[in-house]
Write a structure and sequence with these properties.
Elements (H helix, E strand, L loop, with lengths): L14 E2 L2 E9 L3 E8 L5 E7 L1 H4 L2 H16 L8 E6 L5 E6 L4 E2 H8 L4 H22 L13 E2 L1
Antiparallel strand pairs: 1-2, 2-3, 3-4, 4-6, 5-6, 7-8
Length: 154
């Protein structure tokens, strides 16, 4: 995900299933991801919200729903849990996801330069396990993103 520019965002402060959107975390091709916090219990979550132009495209909207279904069906320690799925008043779909503290694998590698062979094996095994589980459940790999910038080094 690329960092977001500091531009006023109408979603900041909005409510999603009891969670208040606090700030943007990043943006990708399909949408933006925001840090949220539950108003009552204080639990943090990440909200993935489709971009308006993506939400208008039936093929991409259907893909987002498939992604939500696959994620909801998966129970694996290397895949974040889905908390909720819904639609904003403007028609855009969103996913509420477990929020993980930590930096992306890409940021970690940029900061440290390299990892030990043991760490490289661990990361590769984790990413392969996640792909295997998603492929088994979805029948194809493309539903879950495992690019280094999407992989948390937590």
């Amino acid at each position: 995900m690329k960092p977001l520019a500091l531009v006023p965002d109408p979603l900041i402060g909005a409510q999603l299933a009891g969670y208040r959107i606090l700030r943007p975390l990043g943006e990708g091709g399909m949408g933006a991801v925001y840090l949220c916090e539950h108003e009552t219990i204080g639990r943090r979550a990440a909200a993935k919200v489709l971009k308006a132009e993506v939400a208008r495209d039936l093929e991409w909207s259907d893909r987002f729903v498939r992604e939500a279904r696959v994620m909801a069906a998966l129970k694996q320690r290397n895949i974040v849990d889905i908390i909720n799925f819904g639609t904003l008043p403007d028609g855009r779909s969103y996913l509420l996801l477990e929020y993980l503290e930590g930096e992306s694998l890409a940021a970690y590698l940029a900061r440290v330069g390299s990892v030990s062979p043991a760490q490289a094996v661990e990361v590769t095994a984790t990413r392969s396990s996640r792909r295997r589980v998603s492929f088994t459940r979805a029948g194809r790999r493309r539903e879950l993103d495992s690019r280094p910038r999407q992989t948390r080094w937590a």
